[in-house]
Specification:
two-stranded antiparallel sheet; disordered C terminus; mainly alpha; disordered N terminus; 62% helix; single chain
């Protein structure tokens, strides 16, 4: 078992502990038990920077890099050719919760580069690395050394969607289209809005369940600074979840109807499928 005395990652960490102690014999330059309500304080960033000197965190970061590369190609098809559920954000959030936003930047850069080399899905365009890096950074800002709550987890996913899907990714796609001579890229499209509206509720629910389920195991592996509280689901959460599920269902239905109406051939013209421009390294609309 993963958390057993003589097996898995925990056993490896026990073997690594003497090396870590020797490496950090003068003690780490930050409070290893500190918990923060927000990232707007110097101690938060000292802790985040100090993770680069923590062998346990660096080994865990290497594991997350391998997992992110492995799950890139794993997707659940919701609407063929249009809407997929990916798993990278699940691994990404757990990693950034442990090692913070600064190590997260490095993990995002390395996983994107190695993934593009080992499993290319199109022409490589370097600026897309910033989308991966920012998603890890944002998750770290919300989840690193913080008391987990359902609203905090949902807010972290919302911030990633807004910043990465609606700001950074369109900027990079605009640059890509300008470099390659393709038609100008539209910042806001019906397709992108509906896709994200459809996926956000499902991704948020999965993220709350996932982080709540693994947080105690991570604490027992000494990867979290304090025993995590159980993520409680209040009546407000349930109401919000139901509303989000309805919005998600309507968004998926609306997207299917919109796509069908926009792909019907006009009389006397050759039909051409209308699709959102895809990133040269993969499917843009589903966020990292």
């Amino acid at each position: 078992m993963l958390g057993s005395k003589h097996g898995g990652f925990d056993f490896f960490m026990q073997k690594l502990k003497p090396v870590e102690q020797q490496f950090n014999k003068n003690n780490r330059p930050y409070n290893t038990k500190a918990i923060f309500s927000h990232p707007f304080c110097p101690e938060f960033w000292r802790c985040a920077a100090g993770e680069f000197k923590n062998w346990r965190m660096l080994v865990f970061a290497a594991v997350i890099i391998a997992m992110r590369i492995a799950v890139k190609a794993v997707k659940i098809v919701i609407i063929p050719g249009a809407l997929n559920f990916g798993f990278d954000f699940i691994v990404n959030s757990a990693g950034s919760m442990i090692y913070g936003p600064l190590v997260g930047l490095l993990v995002g850069a390395v996983s994107d580069t190695i993934g593009a080399v080992l499993f290319p899905t199109g022409a490589y365009f370097f600026p897309f690395i910033f989308v991966e890096m920012l998603s890890s950074f944002i998750f770290g800002l919300f989840l690193y050394r913080a008391k987990l709550s359902s609203w905090r987890v949902i807010a972290s996913r919302f911030a990633v969607v807004v910043v990465c899907n609606f700001i950074v990714n369109p900027l990079v796609m605009t640059l890509y289209n300008a470099v390659t001579g393709v038609d100008p890229y539209k910042f806001i499209t019906i397709a992108r809005v509906i896709k994200n509206a459809a996926m956000f509720p499902l991704e948020s629910v999965v993220l709350v369940i996932w982080l709540g389920a693994i947080s105690m195991a991570l604490y027992k592996m000494h990867l979290l600074p304090e025993k995590p509280p159980m993520i409680k689901v209040s009546a407000g959460n349930i109401v919000a979840l139901v509303c989000a599920a309805v919005i998600s269902a309507l968004a998926i239905f609306g997207y299917v109807k919109w796509k069908k109406s926009n792909t019907k051939p006009k009389p006397g013209s050759t039909p051409a499928p209308i699709t959102e421009t895809a990133a040269p390294t993969g499917d843009v609309p589903n966020t990292p």
